[in-house]
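ok so for the tutorial part 2 we go from a plain amino acid sequence to predicted C-alpha cells. step 1 is just haveing the sequence, like this:
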Amino acid sequence: MDQQLSGIDASFLYLETPETPMHVAGLTYFQLPEAFEGSFYQHFRRFFEGRLHTIPIFSKRLAPSLYDLDHPGWVDADEIDLDYHLRETTLPAPGTEAQLEEVIGRLHANTLDRSRPLWQFYVISGLENGQGVLYSKVHHAAIDGGAGMAINKALYDVTPTPREVAPPPPRPATAKPAPSSPTAVDPLKGVTDIMSNMMRQQARLWQAAPDIVNAMTNAFLARPGETPKALSTLQSLVSQLPTLNAPKTPFNATITRERSYAARTISLSDAKAIGKASGAKLNDVVMAICAGALRRYLQEKSQLPEKPLIAGVPISLREPGDTRQNNQVSGMLCQIATDIADPAERLRAIVKSSSESKQLAGTFRDAVPQDFAFVGAPILLQLVMLVYGRSGLADRLPMPMNVTISNVPGPPMPLYCAGAKVTALHPVSIPAHGAALNITVQSYMDALNFGLTADRRAVPDVALLGDYLVDAAKELGKSMLRD
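step 2 — the prediction. this is what the C-alpha cells look like for a chain of 483 residues:
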C-alpha cells in the first residue's frame, strides 16, 4: 500500500457505523457569475476536472491489511467515476433555506462507498435567492479541519478569473500481475509488514518514553515557593470533579441514521469586539454564544440542568504551514456556564474554565502518542462501536460532555469558485452517540458561519436552536456594551 493510515486517522473508520457516518462536509454558497447561462453543474464539473489532480487524496482508495489485522492504507484508485463523486440536485419550489437544510441533512446521513475514494460533491440549484450551493463531503479518515484548508486552496481562487493550473503529469505505464481478487495480497509480505509495523509502534513508544517522563516532570515541578501550573490546574479540576460529569440532556442519547441541520451567520467583527471588551479569546466568545442559545433552548423545554453543560472542544495540533492531509487533533472539556443567566458573567466563567482546560491540554500535548496499532484493531474496534450503538448504552451511561463545539479559522479574503463569488462557508460535522449535537463554526471574511449538525430524533428543531444562536450573539453584545 502507498501509505498506511495512522491510528488516529484509522479510528474514524473504526468509529463509523450506519448510524454514525464519519465524514465532514462544507456548505458553500456562491453568487453565479454575472449574465451566466446554462448549467452551473456542467460548468463546475469542467472546472473541477482540471484541478482534481491537485488533491492527491481524492484519487486514493482504501486497501485493507491482511485479514484486517492492522490499519488499512491508501492506494491509487484505478479510475475516478465522476458520475458518482460529482452530482447535482435541484431544490423544489420555492427553494427556501429550510428546504436546503432538509436536503443537507439527508445527504449528510449517507455513508461514503469505501470501495471508492472517500469524497463526494453535490452542486445544488433552485435556491429562491438565485445563489448556487456546493455540498462537499470527505471522510474524516482522510482529512481534518486544518487539512481542509489545503483542499480549499485547490478548489477556490482569490480573483473572479480562475488561475491556470498545470495539467497532471502522465501516469507511468507499469505492468502489474493480475491478482486473484481486488484485495489479493501476498500473505507472507502482509504478515511481515504487519509485524514490522507493530514493532515500529512499540519502538516509538519506548523512544518517546523519556520525552513523556520529561513532560510530566516539568509539569509538576516548579521553583521553590511556586505551585506548578499543571498541578494548580489539576487541583482546580479535581475540586470541580462533581460537575465534570456532564448533566443529562436530550443531546446525551443514542443517535439514529437521520440528521437535522441548520446554517446561521453572525458578524465576526462584533464577536471580536466582545472579546476585546472582555479580554476573552474568540473561541471563548463562540462558546458563550452557543451557551446562551443552549440555555434558552433547554429552558423552554423545561430540560435545563442545574449544573452547567460541558462542551467537548477539538484542539488542532497542526503546525503552521503543515498541509498534510491527515488528522492532527486532540481535545479538551470545558464547562460553558449554562447555569448562569447573565451573558457577561457567563462569558467570564467560560474564560476561566477554558483557560484551565487549555493549560492542562497544552501541558501534556507532547506526551500523548498520536498513533497506535495492535493486532486486529480494525475488527475489534468496529465491533465495540457496533455493540455500543446497538445496546443503547449512551442513553444510560454517564457522559463526559453534552455537545461538541468547534471553531475553525477560515480565509479573511473573498474567494471565487469556478468564477462564482463565494458568499458563505458553513461547516457540516459529526454528531455521535452520547453527543447528538455538533456546533462547528468557520470564519469567512467578516462572518462567523455556524453549522449545527444533529441527530434528527434528539434535536428535530435544530433550526430553532440556530435562530437562538443569532439572538444570543446580540444579547451578549448588548450585555458587554452595558458593562
